[in-house]
From TrEMBL:
The name this protein goes by in its record: DUF1761 domain-containing protein
Record bears the keyword Repeat: no
Membrane-crossing residue ranges in chain numbering: 6-24, 45-65, 77-94, 103-124
Swiss-Prot/TrEMBL keywords: Membrane, Transmembrane, Transmembrane helix
UniProt keyword 4Fe-4S present: no
Top-level taxon in the UniProt lineage: Bacteria
Length: 127
């Protein structure tokens, strides 16, 4: 496993998430029912733990890419988009449906899953 590729791909997914949720924080917070005053209560550990989760994800993606003989950033991008769209989004949708959350959360989070994993998948193929 190319650990550098995994670490950089995870960082790319994390950075895209920071930008995405910075842009979508208002609509996401409204849909999640989180008041702006509650926002500051999030532990900073969440940021590090989310990166660790992306490292695990990218390590597994790298293994899948190897088995699928993915060649080049364009194929990595498309495979990543597929993983986000066909694994991530349905899982989020089911979770949100059963917990009675608004569909807009699935739209916001699902868009990030598709874009983020697509970028991470492409980055894996740059190394």
């Amino acid at each position: 496993m190319e650990i550098v590729a995994v670490l950089v791909a995870a960082a790319a997914i994390w950075a895209i998430g920071a930008a995405w949720y910075g842009l979508m924080s208002g609509p996401w917070r409204d849909a999640a029912g989180i008041a702006p005053s509650e926002e500051s209560g999030m532990s900073r550990a969440v940021f590090g733990l989310s990166y660790a989760c992306f490292v695990l994800l990218c390590g597994f993606l790298q293994w899948i890419w190897y088995l699928a003989d993915v060649q080049g950033a364009a194929e990595g991008l498309m495979m990543g988009a597929g993983v986000g769209a066909f694994l991530g989004v349905p899982w989020m949708a089911v979770n949100n449906m059963y917990s009675g959350r608004p569909w807009v959360l699935t739209l916001i989070d699902g868009t990030y899953a598709v874009i983020g994993v697509a970028a991470g998948g492409a980055v894996l193929e740059l190394f």
